[in-house]
Amino acid sequence: MTVIVTGAAGFIGAHVVRALLARGQRVIGIDNMNAYYDPALKQARLDRLIGEADDFLFAFGDFADQAALASAVGGVTLTGIVHLGAQAGVRHSIDAPRDYGHSNLVGQLEILELARSQPGVHLVYASSSSVYGDTTALPFDAEARADSPVSLYAATKKAGELIGESYAHLYRIPMTGLRFFTVYGPWGRPDMAMWRFAERVLKGEPLPLYNHGRMRRDFTYIDDIVAGVLAALDRPPADDGAVKPGGSTSPHAIYNLGNDEPQQLARLVSLIGQACGREPLLDMQPMQPGDVTATWADIAPARRELGYAPTVPLEEGVPRFVGWIRNWTKQ
Fold it and tell me: Could you give phi then psi for residue 52, rounded to 5 degrees?
């Protein structure tokens, strides 16, 4: 019962590894610990969030490198693949497009080839709400067309889904794509709004608020996302020719994992201010390139097929995150 998790030192990856270990599974984790943000945070996740465990093997390497990935697996027969590693960040994709081609396109191909070499193994991979672009059709339906990305990051995530569909069709590999919606919580990423906003409020610094705080996001707490990942892993789509969530007749399903409760960024800032005990200093700014006006996940298929049921509202999740980042900053 061995599962490989890519991006094991990442925000979602480390939480998923911890949850898999807690339910008694052996886990191989792979991560190249790149410097997109401070590698010390990634190492801290490995050391303190996951910790030492007999059933966890960490491989330092790039999953987009065929030899490194093969070395990490080491001939082990896998019972699951959870592909969470990626080059993240919408704005960074404007400045460093090759990073996204390497990790999100070549990397997706190498993971699919790994799945092809392990007959019957279920591949669960991370996609993103960004694939929907700046659509006004809310909530986002996983079966709606999503072919107008407004960032290269979004384009690579949609391309990853399409490459996955071709492998599911050609090689009958059971796979599940998960479109994550604005994940936040303890051990999060410092490039994301929740972290940047809390950091500035705690320091008493002006906080740039784009589109005057009118953008809406379907903020989803990390524990709910982890529960969704594990539920998906346990329910591989059948190769029965039936239409799956997302529209495929191959053994390939696509789900939204969100909170189904979009909130304005202005509301987020207010909750962060309350949790920090400070009045935020706001610097109103126009919309940024690559941003979208609103995200909202239609999670009905995930509720029906996976039993997915988010439980943490923003009012509870924000104070938890602020409590964590206070301690992290002190350390």
Answer: -80, 130
Is 122 within 8 Å of 81 (Cβ atoms)? yes
Residue 245 lies in a domain: yes
Give the C-alpha separation, 241 to 287, whole Å: 43
In the chain, the amino acid numbered 282 is L
pLDDT tens for residues 41-78?
999 999 999 999 999 999 999 999 999 999 999 999 99
Q: What is the tally of helices (H) and strands (E) in the chain?
A: 12, 13
Q: Which of 163, 83, 178, 195 is nearest to 127 (CA)?
A: 178
State residue 133's pLDDT score. 86
CATH of the domain at 229: 3.40.50.720
Residue 315 lies in a domain: no
Nearest partner of 194 among 117, 268, 97, 128, judged by Cα = 268
Q: Is the bond preceding 190 in cis, omega lying within 30 degrees of 0?
A: no
Q: Is residue 164 part of a domain?
A: yes
In the chain, the number of structural domains is: 1
Dihedral of CA 296/311/18/322: which sign?
positive
Do residues 275 and 325 lie in contact, with contact meaning Cβ atoms separated by under 8 Å?
no
**Angle 30-63-98 from CA coordinates, rounded to 5°:** 130
The pair of three-digit structure tokens given for residue 320, joined into one six-digit string: 């938890």
3-class DSSP assignment, residue 159: helix
The tokens 């490039």 sit on which residue? 191
Structural domain span for residue 96:
2-181+220-258+297-310
Give the helix, strand, coil percentages of the chain, each rounded to 5.
45, 20, 40
Residue 154, pLDDT above cutoff 70: yes
153 is catalytic: yes
Whether residue 199 is contained in a domain is answered as no
- Average of per-residue pLDDT across 275-297: 81
pLDDT number for residue 69: 97
Contact present, 108 and 66 (Cβ < 8 Å): no
DSSP state of 242: P
Question: Which element (helix H / strand E) includes 27?
Answer: strand 26-31
Distance of CA 68 to the CA centre of its chain: 22
Q: Which of 37, 125, 153, 167 is catalytic?
A: 153
